[in-house]
Amino acid sequence: MAIAITKPEAMIFDLDGTLFQTETLLLPAYRATFDRLREEGLYEGETPPEKYVLSGLGMLLEHIWQMVMPEVDQAVHRRADELLLKLQIEGMERGDGKLYDGVAHTLQGLRSRGIRLFIASNGLEDYVKGVIRYQGLETLFEPGGLYSAGEYRTRSKADLVRMLLDRHGVSSAWMVGDRSSDVEAGHANGLFVVGCDYAGFRKEGELDQADVRIADFSELLKLVDET
């Protein structure tokens, strides 16, 4: 059942595929990760097709590696975690990675309207905080408001969002994201869900249960102002 739209006290954003064009940072680091795994004798053969890692965006990393290289030991998955994070951080430091059009302006507009802004991501802590820092968005989000499954060891995004709401005393919020895990996390916590329909990483039908869908991030301002 759809949740009625009301003006929110806060907005909780997914990161990859919602605010950040993940592939602009991820794919070079993904290719370099497999170069390093081969050098270290931990992986043989060609780098798995990029479609596997892209289709897993929004999932926990352990589940992504199970799709990308299901035949290897979990120790290799953990080493891949380390390498991918290190290489992505190095990429951020070089200025790699892009936000979707209108993200910075829209977040500033939401903040100026008094809306509290948060992140809830299934990514690793240093990656999530690094993207926000290197993109110059830190001051727009609530202090301590960048939540990641990597930091809090949650098993689902619904649990992560519940923790965020409780810790920050948020009583009404919109969940904004591009994957079914965002829709499920929002509705599990009684939130209005905005589905972001522009990244293209998801499977068909993932956003069917969202309460509203947007084709451009800047549409959020219009939605808020019309509520």
Automatic annotation (TrEMBL):
GO terms for cellular component: cytosol. GO terms for molecular function: phosphoglycolate phosphatase activity. GO terms for biological process: DNA repair. InterPro entries: HAD-like_hydrolase_sf, HAD-like_sf, HAD_sf, PGP-like_dom2. PANTHER family: PHOSPHOGLYCOLATE PHOSPHATASE. This is Haloacid dehalogenase.
